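Researcher: Quick sanity check before group meeting.
Model: Go ahead. Protein one:
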Amino acid sequence: MDHIRIGIGVSSIGRFLPLIGEAAGLFEKENIAVEIVNRQDEEKVVEDIAAQTTPVGTPNAPSLIFSRLEGTDLVIVGGVLNRPAFYLAAESTSITGKADLKGKRIGINQPRRMAGMVMLALLRRWDFNIQRDLTLVDLGLNDKSLEALRAKEIDAALLPPEKAFLAEHEGFRLVADSLDLDCHWVPLATTRRFLRENLDLVARVASIYKESIRVFQSDPDTTLKEIRRWLPALANKPHVLEKCYRLFAEQFEPALTPSLSAIQSILAEVALQDPRAGEIEPASLIANVL
């Protein structure tokens, strides 16, 4: 039997495919003993993949690109989510649309991370000048945006689906989303060195991710049971849980194919912070194992 440790960066449904696959017996079917490690930090997942502590994992795309710029050999072997699914949640009485953000306090986490990068991209798209038109409130490395909204420390924030739909349930208004941004969000990644030495194992893991997407989409009972297990805060909120399920069922890439245009777009976003990213060819980040 082969053994593999798989790293996930955050407790998000977008990272739960190996948990779904394990619950459905897919790893056992492939004769793979799997350990799934939730690092609760995107940067640590990248570090663990590079060090082969967890040689396969799902970081966010910017973290992978920044690591490549620092000299790692991380490579994308599957496109789990080719578009970012974030929602702008806002205080509901004074903000009814994007135009009402002018003069307001907008929470943002680190710009190097996906939500922060997407927030900046959306503000540019909406023609806001971040120095003049609104106030960005730095919420640091660990995203505390929903807590800051509840405490009225900010007026709006970009949230992942689980927190966004929970915020909506609590009375906040969802005024916009990032679904039409063609920016790669969640890759399945390893290193080129590990791939060279373990091609068959990585290919089987990728095939399990692909099959897990099919299970996710076709077997909601198994899927929702696992989501409730790993996100207990949603277990007693069936409406929120159902909205999250429907969103990810639609957004997962069933063929696990990375989108070159989406990778090009996220490279362009990273290049605004580190121009060297503009020199990377999207295809050079991908290794086809399926």
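Researcher: Fine. The other one?
Model: Protein two, sequence then structure:
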Amino acid sequence: MTDHAGPQDIPPGERSPRATGHPTEGGAPAAPTQPLPRDAGSWASKVDRLTETDVGSPAANVVGRRLTGPVQGFGKMWRKTYRMDIGPGISPREAIGTWKSHFAEFWPQGNWFEAPLTGISPGEVALLDVGLGGGVRLSTGVFVLYADEKSFTLMTPQGHIFAGWITFSAERAQHGDGRPEAEEGQSTIVQAQVLMRANDPLYELAMTLGGHRKEDQFWVQTMTALAKYLDAPPVEVHARTVCIDPRRQWGNVGAVWHNSMVRTALQTMAAPLSALAQRRRRARQSAPARRS
């Protein structure tokens, strides 16, 4: 992949594409002092909390949550990169367009991702439910921070396993000096890159006890399924993990309050009691009607 500023390099608070100008004497705003970047429409507007989702499923672990980057996380900071060569017959635009349109279909069995009707578009919120092993599940969501024809980035809210973002991208192979090869005739390299910290101590423990290995398997299977769907030649997904910061941020230990794994378990256990309470309320409401 080319070495350019992406979500892993730009703090979320500095990504707003808006340019500002000073008012004129008549009160109308002057022309912006800086032109908008060409990809301004590909960035989501800055948000403080996730307030709504167009997805029909319950979003109890998403609505009201703040977005979290690696700075807000608890555990060690990791950069994980998964890459595969899908050959010259598939363009980067085709690869990313297919990945966005059929994102959930490539996930390993037993996990689901529900995007809004508008698909993976900047500013949208998608819900997900992931099996963590041993019957434990995690219901949470992601925010579409960036999306264009050749890449898209998802950012996590409070309560997610990790604080950070994951960028999916594709481009033609490069020369040894870093220059891209010609658009035609050269292999397309597809990549998923995660920059993350575990969100709280419970997640950090889970990642240490096999969570990292399980995550690697998840994305290798996902990308292999994508390559198969694209009818690419047999591929091998190469995974590389680098520890960016070995320190744990104990000042963020309170993030465990939002832990969606714990909340999902409590919601699952409470579901039968909630259903019973609703039946009793309906029975009490219908009793006066029967007596009359």
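Researcher: One line on it for the slide.
Model: The chain has a mean pLDDT of 80.
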